[in-house]
Every structure is written in structure tokens, then in C-alpha cells.
Write a structure and sequence with these properties.
- This protein is an alpha/beta fold.
- It folds into 2 domains: 2-154 and 261-391, no CATH class; 159-247, no CATH class.
- The chain has 15 helices and 11 strands.
- It has helices at 2-15, 17-24, 40-50, 66-81, 94-106, 111-118, 129-140, 159-169, 175-190, 199-216, 224-243, 248-268, 282-285, 301-309, 358-364; strands at residues 55-58, 87-93, 145-150, 276-279, 313-320, 324-326, 332-334, 354-356, 366-369, 377-380, 387-391.
- The strands form 3 sheets. It has a 7-stranded mixed sheet, with helices on both faces. The chain has a two-stranded antiparallel sheet with strand order 6-7. The protein has a two-stranded antiparallel sheet with strand order 9-10.
- A hairpin with a 7-residue loop joins strand 9 and strand 10.
- Helix 1 packs across helix 2 (17-24) and helix 9 (175-190) packs across helix 10 (199-216).
- The chain is globular.
């Protein structure tokens, strides 16, 4: 299958992406998200670089860049439809995606569940919504496998992880122990502490609960896939509870390691030769710890991934010459102007989107750039990313979320 897949990729460049798409999946030919005219040359170049990779790690400067989001949505659709990628992993809830995959096996998965799994960071945004639908259709048809790699608890708009998971994991416990464990996990998930229920006391109780849940798991009458899913949930909660005791810096480093561990677990369960797309932030995508401005050698998710996959993986980052991005619920922030020699100057003001491939990044050597939170610093970016998309102008995403009154 792998040989045949690579042969198709080579054929694509001979007969053309549009023709191959029509042959492979006629229904998809007219349903892909359009690519803006100024983005089209960069999109073609990015697809050329990513189409033959085993893992495409697609970053973003922040989780609130609308132009980037539009480009990434169209890119993911094309990597699936034209290049044969058959799995997509998000920097999103491990637990919600496990619940979606369980529901898909049982025949009652919904498109809303894909949005819940992707989470509140993206699911309300107009730019992202076409991808939710696309991924649901592809997953429901069995053409792709979806997964999440973030084990954090208490994510925005995640009904399974925030509530239903507590009852599922406590199944099989004696009634009194179950009630106490449901309460302990709910308190940690919702950060519901007070004088009578301190964080430290709850952490101790939750650790005991997790050990008891794990002990009872082999005796439950569930399928091997469901058991593996619950083991992954327990592992994730265990890591989160342990991570709560760390400093913010150590917390972040441990999270990167944990995300790679979940990615590796997900990849190991796929059919041999399955090619994977990773949707994440550019900091995590970076293939070198040099992304850290403090020159800390702690590996990022992308560092660990590239140690395994080498040139079979590709780390793509995004930046912009001008514009703005969403900072919080009430504030958009202006992207600072590029300093002399900055990579962002490759995109002409008001012009086409630029793409710097690996060779171009190598040629530029050490230069200022702002692919991480639109903050300029100098680095040898070829050591950190394999390619950089630069928009002439970025803009905040357009949210459809309705906030309740305080």
C-alpha cells in the first residue's frame, strides 16, 4: 500500500492535482475550501513540499490568526484529498477525540462531536468551520482517523472531558468510592477548590482514585479498544495531576513531552504507512529547542517528532508582515512592523503571500522573524522550521461564539 501511495503522489505531479482529485474522490473536487488569489502561489509551493512527507506538522504564530487559519484549513483538505494523508491529530483534547472515535465505532458520532473535540479555541470561528465538516465526513466514511494529543483538563467547550468522563472512568467502583472519585475529578477539571476542599488534598484523593480506577479496569466487560481508550484517559489524567505540582515553565515542557507521547501512541495504532497531519502552534511544531528564546535545551513536541522521523517530517510555520490578531475576548493586537532584514519583508506590502522553503531559509542564515506570537527575534530559522509562509496581512478570526452576560 505504501508503494502504491507513493506512486500516486508521483503521478499527481504528472497528470495534475485537479485531475487526480476528480479520479480519486469526485465528490470532493468542488467541496474544498477556496484558496485566496494572493495565497495560491504559496499554497502550491507548500503542497509541493508537504505532499510526499510522512508527517506534516502545521503550526501557527498564535491560536488567533484568521488568515493563517483559512490557509491551514484549505491546506489540510488538500493534503487529505490530493496527497493521501489519512490521519489528522490536533493540539486538542485527547479525551474528546477518544470519545468521538468510540462513538464512531458505535455508529452515533456527530459533526458536533468533532467540533467539541477540536475545542473552543477553533470550533466557533468562521474560518475553521469548513474543516470541521470536512473532517467529519471523511472520518465517518472511514477515510481518515482523527486524534487529539493534549491531556490538559478543563478545556473550553468540551462536554465529555469536563463532565461525562468522570462517570465513565469511575465505572465499576463501589458506590461510596465512586461518589468521592467523581467529586475529586470534577473538582480538578473545573478547578473548584475552597477552604474545605484544597488543591493539595484533592490531588491526594484523586491519585488514590486513579489507582483504584486502573485496578478495576481489567474486570470491566468492555471491548479491547474501549479498554485501551480508558487506559489512555487514565494516563492523561495521571500526567495532568502530576504536572499541577510543577512550575509554569516545567509544566509547559512536560506538556510538550506528553503531547509527543500521545502522538506516538496514536501513530502506533494506525495502519503501516499511514501519513499524518498535525495541527498545532508553531512553538510546538519547531524541530529544534532553539525556538526557545532562553536557549533552553528542553525538547519541544516537534523536536521529539523530528528525532524519530527526520526528513520524513516537515515543520511549517506562519508569520505576517502586517495586520492584527486576536489577543483576548475584548482586544485585538497590531502586528509590529518588521525590522530591517526581517524574513517578513519577503511578502510585499499588500501583495502576494510569500513562502520561504528550506533552501531559502538556509540562505538567509541568522535573521529577525516573528513566527512565534508575532514577536521578533533573530535566529537561524532553517534550524527551527522547514518552511515559512508569510502573509502580507494577517487578521483576527471571525467568531460566532455568543458569550453569556456576566
Amino acid at each position: 500500500m505504501l508503494v502504491a501511495g507513493r506512486a500516486i503522489v508521483k503521478l499527481m505531479w504528472v497528470i495534475g492535482p485537479a485531475l487526480l482529485l476528480a479520479v480519486a474522490h469526485p465528490a470532493l473536487a468542488s467541496s474544498l475550501t477556496p484558496v485566496k488569489r494572493n495565497d495560491q502561489p504559496a499554497m502550491r509551493a507548500v503542497i509541493r513540499d508537504l505532499c510526499h512527507r510522512d508527517v506534516a506538522v502545521i503550526g501557527e504564530a498564535t491560536h488567533s490568526d484568521g488568515h493563517t487559519e483559512t490557509f491551514k484549513v484549505a491546506l489540510v483538505e488538500r493534503l487529505v484529498s490530493r496527497c493521501g494523508f489519512r490521519a489528522v491529530v490536533f493540539e486538542a483534547s485527547l479525551y474528546e477525540f477518544l470519545a468521538f472515535n468510540r462513538a464512531r465505532r458505535e455508529g452515533h458520532a456527530t459533526e458536533a462531536m468533532v467540533g467539541d473535540a477540536i475545542g473552543g479555541l477553533w470550533k466557533f470561528e468562521t474560518e475553521f468551520k469548513p474543516l470541521t465538516h470536512f473532517l467529519y465526513i471523511q472520518a465517518a466514511a472511514g477515510r481518515i482517523t482523527l486524534g487529539g494529543m493534549d491531556d490538559q483538563l478543563g478545556g473550553l467547550e468540551q462536554p465529555f472531558a469536563n463532565d461525562a468522563m468522570t462517570n465513565l472512568l469511575s465505572e465499576g467502583l463501589p458506590a461510596d468510592i465512586r461518589a468521592a472519585c467523581v467529586d475529586a475529578l470534577h473538582r480538578r477539571t473545573h478547578w473548584d477548590y475552597d477552604d474545605a476542599h484544597s488543591e493539595d488534598a484533592n490531588r491526594t484523593a484523586l491519585r488514590s482514585c486513579l489507582a483504584e480506577m486502573r485496578k478495576r479496569l481489567p474486570g470491566l466487560k468492555i471491548s479491547p479498544l474501549d479498554r485501551a481508550g480508558r487506559e489512555a484517559m487514565l494516563d492523561g489524567v495521571d500526567r495532568q495531576v502530576a504536572r499541577d505540582a510543577l512550575s509554569s515553565d516545567d509544566y509547559a515542557k512536560d506538556r510538550d513531552r506528553a503531547m509527543y507521547g500521545e502522538f506516538a501512541r496514536f501513530a502506533a495504532r494506525l495502519s503501516k504507512g499511514t501519513r499524518i497531519i498535525v495541527w498545532t502552534q508553531s512553538f510546538h511544531a519547531a524541530k529544534s529547542p532553539a525556538i526557545r528564546p532562553d536557549e533552553d535545551d528542553a525538547p519541544t513536541f516537534g523536536t521529539l517528532l523530528h528525532q524519530t522521523y527526520g526528513r520524513r517530517a516537515f515543520a511549517l510555520a506562519f508569520s505576517a508582515r502586517s495586520g492584527s490578531y486576536h489577543w483576548d475576548r475584548k482586544e485585538n493586537r497590531t502586528i509590529p512592523p518588521p525590522p530591517p532584514g526581517a524574513l517578513e519583508l519577503a511578502a510585499a506590502a499588500g501583495g502576494e503571500t510569500a513562502y520561504l522553503d528550506s533552501a531559502a531559509l538556509q540562505t538567509r542564515g541568522v535573521a529577525p522573524a516573528a513566527p512565534d506570537y508575532h514577536t521578533y527575534r533573530s535566529a537561524r530559522w532553517a534550524d527551527i522550521f522547514d518552511g515559512l509562509v508569510i502573509f502580507a496581512e494577517e487578521h483576527p478570526p471571525h467568531s460566532t461564539r455568543v458569550y453569556s452576560s456576566p
